[in-house]
Amino acid sequence: MEHYFTNNDNLRSNFRTIIYKYEDTLLEFTSDLGVFSKDKVDYGSRLLMETYFKKGKRDVEILDVGCGYGIIGLSLAHIMNAKPTLIDVNKRALHLASMNAKKMKIDANIYESDIYSNVSGKFDCIITNPPIRAGKEVVMNILLKAKEYLNSNGELWCVIRKDQGAKSAIEKMKSIYDVDVVEKSKGFYIIVAKSY
């Protein structure tokens, strides 16, 4: 079983187009085999983005951790005028994210990083739909270490399903953040954690 957080140089390619519509905005993304939610925008990512569009800050520097083909970071850049940095461990995902940024004429910083291993600098917002299948340790690393890469008053935005450990993640996050669940839908929790 290939996972979207691994690299397989032998995996064949089969591009597909994903249309994402938000209010009057239509965005078009290229996706492929070997990346997360390759055929459609998954519900968790959609809920995360659309909650951010309503409640998040505009014109800020964001870091999209585990960016996949770029749906979250590039949509925030287009709709919220965010300045995006996108990272992933999956080289194919990064290639797709770069293609999509170019097609959308978005100036994005896109590079390979195993969680924060290659990240420098700080951000106003770190946003992630964490790779639950990579295991609890990876997910908690993404959520807890984000604090080191947030500006003061920075925010970590994430989506986790209730049945995939949202409540225990929230309890752990409370040790270092002010944590707020800003949206719940179909078992998905949208969590905003502010560094203090």
Walk me through this protein's architecture.
It contains five helices and nine strands. It is globular and about 45 Å long. The strands form two sheets. The chain has a seven-stranded mixed beta sheet with strand order 5-4-3-6-7-9-8, with helices on both faces. By secondary structure, the chain is an alpha/beta fold. A hairpin with a 2-residue loop joins strand 1 and strand 2 (25-31). The model has no long low-confidence stretch (mean pLDDT 92). The chain is 28% helix and 33% strand. Helix 1 runs parallel beside helix 2. It has one domain (16-195): Rossmann fold (3-Layer(aba) Sandwich).
How many strands, what sense, and barrel or not for the largest sheet? 7 strands, mixed
Rounded radius of gyration (Å): 15 Å
Mean pLDDT: 92
Which structural category fits the helices and strands? alpha/beta
Query: What is the H/E string?
Result: EEHEHEHEEHEHEE
Assembly state of the chains shown = single chain
Total count of domains: 1
Low-confidence stretches: none
Distance from first to last alpha carbon = 41 Å
Shape: globular
Q: Which CATH class applies here? A: Alpha Beta
Strand order of the largest sheet: 5-4-3-6-7-9-8
Number of DSSP helices? 5
Under CATH, the homologous superfamily reads: Vaccinia Virus protein VP39
